């Protein structure tokens, strides 16, 4: 659940960051760029600690789950924004001019011309980031989110058995990650074939 909610935030915020990075205003472009770089260059664990343990000192209280999904979403939005930006940059300049000649406003241009062409090639890398987010969810245990790893850890501590629970967690991550990675590779091949 944390993975999918975090991915939704990452994709939505990533698209916003990508669009702002293409702004006509240099101040907006530069400030968004440096904020994204700061988030990308700091460890996710530090960001999770900040959201869960530091924000309450400022009067902002988040549940462990909310802090976890916001942390995942904000952190990975800086990566997905690059995917969105590359996809948008990949749309030929002539498409923008064609939309202008059809008297499309900015919203119509994005909705009817740019995004339908930009999104398909973005799907495989976005799927890869979803898999990466899934593999990062054990970090949420550091802020007391009871996800799979935390549940196994609690069981291990109370029963003094570590091999079985941790092996099961590892096996579960493999069972989800490997088929997901194969599906992402197939998607990538499909989109490459369509472009030929």
UniProtKB/TrEMBL annotation:
Transmembrane domains' residue ranges: 6-23, 44-74, 166-185
Main localization, broad class: membrane
Cellular component GO terms, alphabetical: ATP-binding cassette (ABC) transporter complex
InterPro entries listed in its UniProt record: AA_ABC_transptr_permease_3TM, ArtM/GltK/GlnP/TcyL/YhdX-like, Ectoine_EhuD, MetI-like, MetI-like_sf
One example GO MF annotation: transmembrane transporter activity
Domain ABC transmembrane type-1 span(s) in chain numbering: 1-184
Keywords in alphabetical order: Amino-acid transport, Cell membrane, Membrane, Transmembrane, Transmembrane helix, Transport
Gene3D superfamilies named in the record: MetI-like (1.10.3720.10)
Annotated compartments: Cell membrane
SUPFAM superfamilies linked to this entry: MetI-like
Protein name, per record: ABC transmembrane type-1 domain-containing protein
Organism: marine metagenome
